[in-house]
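Key result, reporting period 2: structure in, sequence out.
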């Protein structure tokens, strides 16, 4: 559900937590990025119905993630990562209205893997470190590789820069490189115990796995 063009981590043990996080979850990141459904999308081989189904599953995932974010808005671990300009639900609603029409709410529902994913996200209201893991997996990936997906979607489905690809428009953040640098600074500033760091790493791996399972399910129906 997200794709990035990041370089692989180095083999040496990184000193910064953001680098350790990237290194420790690289295999899961690659599995999600190189999934057959994602490749069909990036190659322009995915039908519009498949793209629409992916947008619908994004909607349910972000609805849960952003609800948990609001619940944790005063928590010192989660709060630094919460920026109103990141929120994706309004953009996804505009995309779905464009793709399915005004009655889109009646036409979409979460798949079984998405329901599992959403249930895990909701549990993170009691685990702010775990929330950060899911926040990192979703937003940083969509801010990065999402820009390429947006370009491909516009070319494949004939969208303009507006409805259809609103989800990938992070213009309100300003400079995306500066945002990514700021995000990594927040990761490096986390005051985590050794056990807390291990828990965040485990949850990030799980977040990638849950995303990949959503893609696999979509691929069984929509991949050429």
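The corresponding designed sequence is given below.
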């Amino acid at each position: 559900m997200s794709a990035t063009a990041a370089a692989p981590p180095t083999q040496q043990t990184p000193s910064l937590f953001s680098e350790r996080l990237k290194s420790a979850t690289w295999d899961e990141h690659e599995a999600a990025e190189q999934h057959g459904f994602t490749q069909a999308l990036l190659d322009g081989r995915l039908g519009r119905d498949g793209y629409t189904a992916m947008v619908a599953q994004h909607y349910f995932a972000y609805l849960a993630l952003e609800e948990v974010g609001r619940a944790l808005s005063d928590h010192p671990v989660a709060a630094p990562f919460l920026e109103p300009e990141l929120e994706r639900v309004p953009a996804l609603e505009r995309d779905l209205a464009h793709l399915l029409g005004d009655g889109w709410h009646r036409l979409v529902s979460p798949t079984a893997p998405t329901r599992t994913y959403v249930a895990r996200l909701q549990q993170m209201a009691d685990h702010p470190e775990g929330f950060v893991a899911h926040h990192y997996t979703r937003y940083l990936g969509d801010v990065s590789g999402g820009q390429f997906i947006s370009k491909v979607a516009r070319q494949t489905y004939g969208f303009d820069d507006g409805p259809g690809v609103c989800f990938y428009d992070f213009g309100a953040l300003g400079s995306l490189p500066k945002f990514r640098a700021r995000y990594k600074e927040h990761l490096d500033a986390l005051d985590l115990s050794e056990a807390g760091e291990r828990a965040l790493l485990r949850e990030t791996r799980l977040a990638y796995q849950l995303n990949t399972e959503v893609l696999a399910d979509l691929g069984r129906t929509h991949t050429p």
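DSSP finds ten helices and no strands in the chain. The chain has one domain: 17-222. This case is discussed further under Risks and Mitigation.
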